[in-house]
Amino acid sequence: MKKVFVLDTNVLLHDPMAMFRFEDNDVILPITIIEELDRFKKGSTDTGRNARYVSRTLDELRQKGSLVQGIPLDQGGHIKVALCHRDTLQQLPAELEGDQGDNAILAVAMEHKHHYDLPVVLVSKDTNLRIKADALGLVAEDYETDKIDIDELYTGTVEVMTSAENMTLLFSEGHLRLETTLYPNQAITLVDETNPTHTALAFVKGDSGKVVPIGKLPHAGVSRIHPRNREQRFAFELLLQDDISLVTLVGKAGTGKTLLAIAAGVQKVADERLYSRLLIARPIVPLGRDIGYLPGDIGEKLNPWMQPLYDNFDLIFGTQDMRGRPDHWRRGHEEMIDQGLLQIEPLTYIRGRTIPKQFLIVDEAQNLTPHEVKTILTRAGDGTKIVLTGDPDQIDNPYVDAASNGLTYVVERFKGEALAGHITLYKGERSALAERSAILL
Predict the structure, then answer these.
(1) Helix (H, G, I), strand (E, B) or coil at 306
(2) Longest pairwise C-alpha distance within the chain
(3) Cα 189 from Cα 211, distance rounded (Å)
(4) With contact defined as beta carbons under 8 Å apart, do 258 and 316 qualify?
(5) pLDDT tens, residue by residue, 296-310
(6) Residue 181 to residues 89, 105, 177, 212: CA-CA distances in angstroms?
(7) pTM for this entry
(8) CATH number for the domain harbouring residue 113
(9) HEC string of 292-307?
(10) 187 lies in a domain?
């Protein structure tokens, strides 16, 4: 049955193409949205860019007819800008009187509900607005076009019971085919069906369907880092495979996501010289992605937010304790920066660039929207490898959650692609205290 969807501003700021994602239903944009977009459009963040994109799109649609009367969309529905009439506003409860943006959107939704035969649904990513809409008898929903069922999120690993003969064949022939459905680059734990304590680690080689043993790591480890559990070993396999262009690592705090990614990046860039530079970026969410007011140059501004990365470099290079060192002695990451092998910067500066032949790590990717992640992935030039790391349970961005962030979105969308691989890490290895805290708290 055809419906009428009334959109909140935050839906368009989250996904500027949202107005075209409701199939053959009608889409209503309350006039207050236009005013709110005007306030956001001057910003240099993705929110500002999305606001400008929506404004341009509406202006192009305006050339086809009257937005107030409604303009037909290719899918069969209509898009319309609706005015908020003062008499409708006055019908709201006393607590919601006034023409604030949220109340104006509620008024438009109520007016359409009372004057149209079609079901009216208010779509907003604002939890409180959905609650107020429900109190007024309106149907309210989150914008779920890009939502992922977090409980069913692809883990990248699987256990397969098999015969001892198959496990022997895997190592003697170098490959094996299993009669089970597997994804490209999926990590596999083969378990002997007659002796469950006998296991072997393998993975699917691209989209060939062949199961191959995981490779051997250097005796000294990957940049002096050794995997401490099965998932970390699988993660290193994906990170070190040059034909896998996109790797996603998901796990709670302390599971080693960032450390493994940096260790692999240092080896590939500084030791093997397969990439021209290790580029690491983080979203600056706690400051609204704006570090401008902090004193100093870009390096000094970034220090508070990039310190977790520096801690990982100190662990890799063994430079945690600088006491007693000569004044001219430099930390490992500083040496790499001086040599042009390492660059650390906020994600704001990634947009608009083409990044060829680099090992790009995007840390804390759970704070990105699907649109922002798409922007980053489309920056990849020839020969670039991108690693996304994050914990969907630790999100600071108010416009995404565990089911709608860019990291989980990419995991699900790329699980069938030969150029991508994913591992979910479970066991914390930072310390016994950190592991128990992550579980108990």
Answers:
(1) helix
(2) 80
(3) 11
(4) no
(5) 555 565 666 678 888
(6) 56, 47, 11, 15
(7) 0.77
(8) 3.40.50.1010
(9) CCCCCCHHHHHHHHHH
(10) no
Q: How many CB atoms lie within 10 A of CB 140?
A: 22
By the 8 A CB rule, do 87 and 74 touch? Answer: no
> What CA–CA distances, in Å, run from 86 to 68, 106, 131, 171?
17, 12, 22, 76
Cα 285 versus chain centre, distance: 13
Residue 12 vs residues 112, 152, 371, 380: alpha-carbon distances, Å: 20, 27, 11, 26
Asked if the structure places residue 182 within a domain, the reply is: no
215 located within any domain: no
How far is residue 105 from each of residues 70, 111, 168, measured CA to CA in Å? 18, 10, 66
Q: Do 253 and 440 meet the contact criterion of CB atoms below 8 Å apart?
A: no
Domain count, the chain: 2
Tokens for 308? 């977790």
Question: 370-377 and 46-62 helices cross at what angle (nearest 10)?
Answer: 100
Tokens of 197: 């304590």
β-partners of residue 279 are 343, 360
Q: Give the C-alpha separation, 277 to 271, whole Å.
A: 12
CB-side exposure of 51: number of CA atoms within 13 Å?
19
- β pairing state of 157-162 and 139-141: unpaired
**Over the stretch 310-366, which tens digit does the pLDDT of each residue have?**
889 988 988 766 555 555 455 778 889 899 999 988 877 776 678 899 999 999 999
In which order are the strands placed within the sheet that holds 157-162? 157-162, 187-192, 199-204, 211-213
